[in-house]
Amino acid sequence: MTYPAHFRAIAVLGLPLIGGHLAQFAIGLTDTIMLGWYGVEALAAVTLASSFYFVLFLFGGGFGLAVMPMVATAAAEEDETSIRRSTRMGLWLSLLYGMLVMPLLWWSYPILIATDQDPQVAQTASEYLQVAGWGLFPALVVMVLKSYLAALERTQIVLWITVAAAVVNGLTNYALIFGNWGAPELGVMGAAIASVVTQTVSLVAVIIYAVKVLPEHNLFQRFWRPDWEMLLSVLKLGVPIGLTLLAEVSLFAMSAFMMGWIGQVPLAAHGIALNLASATFMVHLGLSNAATIRAGNALGRKDRPHLEKGAIAVTGMSLVVSVLTIILFLTCAEPLISVFVEPDDPQRPQILAIGTGLLAMAALFQLVDGAQVIALGLLRGLQDAKVPMVMAGLSYWVVGIPASYYFGFVQDMAGIGVWLGLVLGLACAAVMLMGRFWLRSIRVVGAPAE
């Protein structure tokens, strides 16, 4: 394939995935906007709760992400049995994981207090998690099934199911947070209930599609029967992927905890800036998923020239998105942040001032954030997860978190310093992971182009 052909193929596969990630992001964004309208304390509490929830969710999501390259490689090899086996055991592991971590969500208050959060904010966050936590089970199952469908290049349905879920979430939030349409006004609890309803709707939709459109895979026939060999294979790939995700998301979770030490208003501004940065990250994440699928296909065919050109193409596409995002964040910071805060909120000027500075820092890490997630996508496609896990852990925990603390508190740079640590951690990851792919991992896929 020529480079233009690679660009087209990545776009056809990746655009629905990007749309799906943006729709998924819109669910969290809706929560942030509506809770910001409801009150700064509610927004701060759910920012804290969401950081805690996603640490647990994304580690469990490693099993879903492990299914994607395994199914893509099996599809390239025309091995229908392995497609079914890997997906089914991914579902098993996700459900088992959910049962193990649910107690942490239920009794989250002492954990949050141990991180030195404001007691009232921690109490509200804990109450939110006791309800929203039940959505973890459908969310993990949905992640596995979406990975299965995406690996089979059925990305359009992944997009539309996620869009439908975002609409359901918005309507349910509007009704239950504010008490509209005759519903009770539940505030933070309304947002928690809406989260569970949304995940359940997604689950029902994706199961119906998988059963009706792909009956040849019989995913749920004799579902109770264990497949220990494949379960171990998914576990071996899924745990390092989950730990890599955990390392990255915990970097951002720790930044939320540090912002909480600075104050409630900086924490709320951090939540807004992080949501905006996350929106642009969804584009890189969709491209990363496309890279995983196409790298998995190349691995199945042992087609190294195809992999090399595709990797260059997807990295270039990510670079273009980064440059556009940097321009947007540096020129339109205040209008973007204003969307999240009521015009008459007395704390609005402080939130705008802090948030504008944080978005300038977010512009700094666009290039490195995009590069590291593209590298991870390519490495996952080749089922190379253990060494990248170590690299990510070193980057985020040994470089990123200590740097955030040092610049934020030792150098007294407050929120700007905390975010500077994020930039350094992501930059370190980008350099090491790209080096790993091009210097070592790519060698397992056949011979280079002549």
Automatic annotation (TrEMBL):
Any one GO BP annotation for this protein: monoatomic ion transport
GO terms, molecular function: antiporter activity; xenobiotic transmembrane transporter activity
InterPro entries found in the cross-reference section: MATE_fam, MATE_MdtK, MdtK-like
Membrane topology: Multi-pass membrane protein
Claim: Transmembrane is one of the keywords in the record: yes
Main subcellular location of this protein, as a coarse class: membrane
Keyword Ribonucleoprotein appears in the UniProt entry: no
Cellular component per GO, a single term: plasma membrane
Alphabetized UniProt keyword annotations: Antiport, Cell membrane, Ion transport, Membrane, Transmembrane, Transmembrane helix, Transport
Stored CDD domains: MATE_NorM_like
Subcellular location: Cell inner membrane
Regions that span the bilayer: 52-77, 89-108, 128-145, 157-177, 189-211, 231-262, 268-290, 311-331, 351-375, 387-407, 413-433
Name of the molecule in the record: Multidrug-efflux transporter
Record organism: Ruegeria arenilitoris
Name of the encoding gene: mdtK
